[in-house]
UniProtKB/TrEMBL annotation:
InterPro entries: N1-like (IPR000026), Ribonuclease/ribotoxin (IPR016191)
Protein name listed in UniProt: Ribonuclease
Claim: Cytoplasm is one of the keywords in the record: no
Secretion signal, residue range per the UniProt entry: 1-22
Gene3D superfamilies: Microbial ribonucleases
TM spans (from-to): none
Keywords, in A-Z order: Hydrolase, Nuclease, Signal
Any Pfam family hit: Ribonuclease
PROSITE patterns: PROKAR_LIPOPROTEIN
Length: 119
């Protein structure tokens, strides 16, 4: 009986460690060179580096990474900015997300996928 309990605890611990490690894995993120970004994204990057002014009220708000498609960071580390889409009447799907550690990410499909922006 004691042996079975120890085996159960060992298996439970091993599974817990596996789940914890899996949760910390960095999602696959491609790269994109800044010169390959659409001109509107390049302009948004310039606005970010200058600190604004930004054309959309929600620019600079915390991006919560609910989809977990970006590397895990502490809450408040990510900020999102709209990349205007010609012909759209609203904010469209394109965004740049900045991180507190200096990385910038581009999404053209409203957070379904990201590419790290390279200089």
């Amino acid at each position: 009986m004691l042996r079975r309990l120890i085996q159960t605890l060992a298996i439970t611990a091993a599974l817990s460690i596996g789940v914890a490690c899996h949760a910390r894995e960095t999602p696959a993120i491609g790269d994109i060179n800044v010169t390959a970004l659409p001109p509107e994204a390049q302009q948004t990057l310039r606005l970010i580096s200058r600190g604004g002014p930004f054309p959309y009220r929600k620019d600079g708000v915390v991006f919560q990474n609910r989809e977990r498609r970006l590397p895990p960071r502490e809450r408040g580390c990510y900020r999102e900015y709209t990349v205007p889409t010609p012909g759209e009447n609203d904010r469209g799907a394109r965004r740049i997300v900045t991180s507190c550690d200096g990385d910038n990410f581009y999404t053209s499909d409203h957070y379904r996928s990201f590419r790290r922006i390279r200089p």
